[in-house]
Every structure is written in C-alpha cells, then in structure tokens.
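Why do we bother with holo predictions? Because pocket geometry can differ from the apo form. Keep that in mind while you read this record for acetoacetyl-coenzyme A.
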Amino acid sequence: MKSISVIGSGTMGNGIAHVFAQHGYDVSLVDIKPEFLEKALSTISKNMDRQVAKGSLSQEDKDAALSRVSTFTSLEEGVKHASLVVEAATENMALKLDIFRQLDQFAPADAILASNTSSISITKIAAVTQRPTQVIGMHFMNPVPVMKLVEVICGYATSNEVTQRIMELSQKLSKDPVEVNDYPGFVANRILMPMINEAIYTLFEGVAGVSEIDTVMKLGMAHPMGPLQLADFIGLDVCLSILRVLHEGFGNPKYAPCPLLVNMVEAGYRGVKTGEGFYRYTAGSKDLVVAPRFSK
Ligand code: CAA
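The structure, written out:
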C-alpha cells in the first residue's frame, strides 16, 4: 500500500495524514473547502515542528513528509489512485454513508475503505458498498501523532486478509493496533464513555467539584488527563453522541447520558473547540481554569 487518501482534514484527518506522510506514504488529503486544507497543512507543519524541536524528526524528513501530502477538494480526484482510503469526516451517519457510496464508486476496485469512526457501525457502513469484505474500522486516538493505539474494527463481512493487512500497516506507522469486533462503542469508547459519564454524574450530584474529580483520576489512577478535561478535549457533543449510540445499541439504561451533559451540549458548551466546557480555554494559554459556573 503506497497511496493513501484521507477524507476530512479536521483534527483526526490531519493527524492521520501527518502519520502516514511521516512514515513515507503518499497522502491525498480531501476536504470540501481549500481553506480547510490550508489550515490542515499548517497544523501538520506546526505539529511536525514539535517533533523537530524534540529531535524525534529531522528538518529534512519533515520537509519530505510535507511534500508527500497533496490536497484535493474533489473526492473523485482525491481517491482515484488510492490503495487505502481512511475516512475521517464528521461523526454523522448520513454523511458517512454518503461518502462511502462515493468511495465505492470512485476508488479502485481493490482499494480498502477504512473509517476512523469512533462509534458508527462498520457493518452498516460496509453494507452501502459493493465491497463489504474490504471495509474496516481504523480508529486512531487524538492526538494521532502521539497516541500509540489504532483500534482495528472488523465489520461482520470484513475479510481476514484485509484485517491482517491493516494490522500490519498500522505497525508500519509505529502504532500498536488492537483487533476488535464491531459492536456499539467497539472497545475504546465502550469503556471510556461510561467513565466520563460517571464523572459528569459525580459532578451533577454534587459529590465533588471539577478539579477534585479530575485530580482523583489523575493522581489516583495515573490518567494523563482527568475525565472531565478529557471530555472537553474530545468534545462534549462527541461524547454525547457516542453515549447515545451505546444506550440505543445495547438498550441498557446504564449508558444513559447524564442530563448535565445533554444540557451543556444543547447550550453550545462543547469543550475546547467552543472555548468552554467543564473548563474555560483561552487561546495561547495552557492554564487549566475551571469554568465559572462550576467554580466554588
Ligand atoms: N502532534 C505532535 N505531537 C504532539 C501533539 C500533536 N498534535 N500534541 C502533543 N504532542 C506532543 C508534545 O510535543 C509532547 O512531546 P514530548 O513528550 O516529546 O515532549 C507530548 O506530545 C506531550 O504534549 P504536551 O507537553 O503539550 O502536553 P501533555 O504532556 O499535557 O500531553 C497529551 C498532552 C498527549 C494530549 C496528554 O495529555 C494525553 O495523553 N492526554 C490523553 C489523551 C487521550 O486520552 N486521548 C484519547 C482520547 S479518545 C479518542 O481520541 C477516541 C475517541 O473516539 C473519542
């Protein structure tokens, strides 16, 4: 596999493009607007600069990696030579199904079609294509250049050969892939989201404050971020939508999203990306400041 197309140039898409380009693959990055693609290239360049500053990437390797990334606003053009397509568009079922119908039409017949979805069924996505055996989940974690895991999700029809190729490819990206089956939330979010939801319930019920809850989990369980900070980092809307997939998929009330989370998302407080969630974020500052409504 030499030529990789990445659909969507947001946080996950540009991180995935970064990692493939850094490891010698030609990357076609596709998005709907040129300005999204320009922003993605600048983000990749800045993130590679961190690696150059740390000495884990040379300036020449950075330049070579960036030169391997081409950008496209036409999906048809962007995937026509792909051996693998990794879709990292917005987490919206109708949008993903539409993209996969088009990928099936425009990507070479032998190309593997992967989705970076965090919770949408791979089996359902595969079913809108004529090549369900070649559809698979490739779930990277944010920040993609830093996190070692790729959750490789086998849909109901995914072939063993395709799974093996994606496991091997993930290793070539210096990642540690883990193979899982396609059930709601897969493994990562089936375990992570109930923990985040429980942290929000703990706050909602007044058991402890934002900093206290996060400190318990950071110092007590050695998590790099507390669950409320992590929820802000992932996006509260994304957490809510994954919890809804778990709740609906298993029909079990233990996955019901906390009403506080629902209210925050409905009010537009979605975490880092909107500047406020459980914490308030100021551009350029690394300080962790509890949002005024949650401070004592
Ligand atoms: N690109 C490249 N390098 C990056 C980076 C990026 N986007 N972001 C951070 N880094 C590097 C930094 O340069 C730094 O490198 P060194 O260790 O070589 O110094 C290192 O990562 C640590 O970064 P910082 O010093 O800026 O900050 P930190 O120590 O607070 O770490 C963090 C930041 C890596 C994000 C850490 O807080 C962490 O691991 N948090 C948890 C992340 C997590 O759980 N992610 C999974 C979310 S769930 C998900 O993604 C899936 C889903 O479906 C919801």
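Strands lie at 3-7, 26-30, 69-72, 84-87, 112-115, 135-140, 149-154, 176-181, 279-280, 289-290.
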